[in-house]
Amino acid sequence: MKNLTNRLVLLVGLLALIPLSACGGSDSSTGPGGQRNAPSAITVLADSSLRAVFTQLGKQFENQNAGSTVTFTFGASADLAKQAAAGDPGDVLATTDQASMVSAQSAQLNSPSVFASKNGQQCQIAVLRQSKNTSLSQSFVNLVTGPAGQKALKTAGFGAP
Asked: How big is the CA angle at 36 (ends 35 and 38), to the nearest 5 degrees?
């Protein structure tokens, strides 16, 4: 009987520790912006002139990343840069002028990438510090700056970076 009691006490003690194992600790996949336990959705803040091509690229991205969702907030680059700098929700910022991207520099996780040109302006894209999933956000940036994105941008009338 005493042996059974000891086993029950041990079992109860071990069961009490299980919820604690999910707390704290370090995970090497955790990065800036909170990659661990991040949602599978990203929000892209993009200049209105990118609406058609980014909507197309968003659908392609979702097809390539099963279970992921891309939502867009379109507007003027300057306004979106102000929103990003203020910490408004968004994972990626895409502007069609360098001045807007520079004004949002404090919100950028990494250096912006030039992905196209239009009317003598450089179009730039960057992952934002407030991104809930920096890995997924960077994957979207990679699509835009990669061959498939460049082809879609060229078809939409944007010039090479």
From this structure: 70
